[in-house]
Amino acid sequence: MKTIFKSSLFFALIILISFATSCSSNSSDDNPNTAELEGTITASGAFALYPLMVKWGEEFKKIHPDVKFNISAGGAGKGVSDALGGLADLALVSRDLKDAEVKQGGYAIAVTKDAVVPTINEANPNINEILAKGLSKESFYKLFIENSASDWKQLGFSASAQTHIYTRSDAAGAAESWAKYLGKKQEDLKGVGVFGDPGLLQAVLKDPSGVGYNNIGYVFDLKTKQPLPGVKIIPIDVNANGVIDTDENNFSNLDSLLSAINTGKYPSPPARDLYFVTKGKPADKVLVEFIKWVLTDGQQFVASSGYVAFSKEKLEGELKKLK
Q: Could you tell me the pTM of the whole model?
């Protein structure tokens, strides 16, 4: 009898352990957020979104160390091409998708906002006058589209000095957004073509007559919140009255500019939403969970990285695109 009792107790314990293990397993399956994620996310695209994507990747890995990230910047056009061609899981995109890209399956989810700003070398002999008066859309059009103002005097400034225009050579959201502000497309922009945001900034920094444009994350020092030494942002004279009014003077520091973008004081375009783009609605578990995290907990890193955070309503709308 003792042997039978011990055997029965042994089998009862086995059944209890099996049941507990089964419940634990089912609980994890029912709630995928409790299970550890594992996999690799490859992202390619816009220089504008690259720094924040790197930050998001670093922070997400702290929570899910078995998720790896391969992140590269080569321009929004390359990112979309990589994603639609199966070379990347995510395209980092700093412009609206084109109709042809949507037809190929491009699926866009907005994740933050920033802006493109016109830049100038601080050694320009008219720098103080330019900062006080700014440039109107008409003046920017003459510089970047018509290429009809080779000297600052032709734009109404005091000192005679050449204008050397620089633009992006790669298919870039920054170039597309700047051209859209002027009512044109990237291919309409005149100037010496330079690859990438860092390259375009360096071209202006090396040329006292240089004029270009950059995503704001490449113009400001994130620690001091001040523009980088050697470069100045050209204020946009939105109402074209020949002077930079209080509402137009938003370039003294990064926080001031981000506030102007958020409230609409800085025109849109060249302010614009930044996107994750996938081929079709994302279905991969790791990718979906990462995007959900970006639109929720990941938003805490947006402002400190030099971007504009979305409203709660905007974020909820983007999250619905994952359902």
A: 0.85
